[in-house]
Design brief:
About 55% of the residues lie in helices and about 10% in strands. Helix 1 links the parallel strand 1 and strand 2. It has about 220 residues and is α/β, with parallel strands linked by helices. It has 2 domains: about 140 residues, Response regulator (Rossmann fold, 3-Layer(aba) Sandwich), CATH 3.40.50.2300; about 55 residues, Orthogonal Bundle (Arc Repressor Mutant, subunit A), CATH 1.10.10.10. The chain has 10 helices and 5 strands; from the N terminus they run E-H-E-H-E-H-E-H-E-H-H-H-H-H-H. It has a 5-stranded parallel sheet, sandwiched between helices.
């Protein structure tokens, strides 16, 4: 009996691009495109409804970015894998994508064969970055990133926003005003940041933000 087809969800805000990828995948019996979405918000709704094996995800989209969508998918549907397909050749995006749970990162200029291999690897829980050495590098990097985050869990989007403001020199009260939250809530978020990063002081938060290219120095 032939193995079940890999169920793929396409997410990109350009309809013509989605149609092109769908047409290419339709020529491969090992893939079934189960749905499409135009942004990260639609993507997470579609994942919850369709439970695809792999989500092929752009990064820069309206309403919710691909990075945030990948993070949500990792946290809520860990059996669904993510492959990023983007026009952005950006090291910071690549790092954020893998930390958010992506299994592969491809540029839209890639050949179709690379896309096929990336989807296959993701479906079985492997990483893909051109070549075996690339996969090993990604696996090693992600393992280290997870260990850095592990003391108390993964930061929420709001906690990351607060961490950036604190690293930029804002006081907790000033950051609360920028984020339109109460000072008490900001203090709670700050405590969570310290716990999750295993940080002992503000300097550790600054180091984290610099290391992850969240602020410029």
């Amino acid at each position: 009996m032939a193995p079940a087809a890999i169920r793929v969800l396409l997410v990109d805000d350009h309809g013509l691009f989605r149609e092109g990828v769908r047409a290419l995948l339709a020529g491969r019996e090992e893939f079934t495109v189960v749905g499409e979405a135009v942004d990260g918000r639609e993507a997470i709704e579609a994942v919850a409804e369709l439970i695809p094996d792999v989500v092929l995800l752009d990064i820069v989209m309206p309403r919710m970015s691909g990075i945030d969508a990948a993070r949500w998918i990792r946290d809520h549907h860990p059996r669904t894998e993510v492959v990023i397909l983007t026009a952005h050749h950006n090291e910071a995006y690549q790092r954020q994508a893998f930390e958010a749970g992506a299994r592969g990162y491809l540029l839209k200029e890639c050949c179709f064969d690379d896309l096929v291999v990336a989807l296959r690897h993701a479906a079985r829980g492997d990483y893909f970055l051109a070549g075996a050495a690339g996969r090993d590098m990604v696996a090693e990097y992600v393992s280290a990133a997870i260990q850095r985050q592990r003391p108390g869990g993964v930061m929420t989007q709001r906690e990351r926003e607060l961490a950036v403001l604190l690293a930029d020199g804002y006081s907790t009260k000033e950051a609360a005003a920028v984020l339109n939250i109460s000072a008490k809530t900001a203090e709670t978020h700050r405590a969570a940041i310290m716990r999750k990063l295993g940080a002992r002081n503000l300097a550790d938060i600054v180091k984290y933000c610099i290391r992850n290219h969240l602020i410029q120095v």
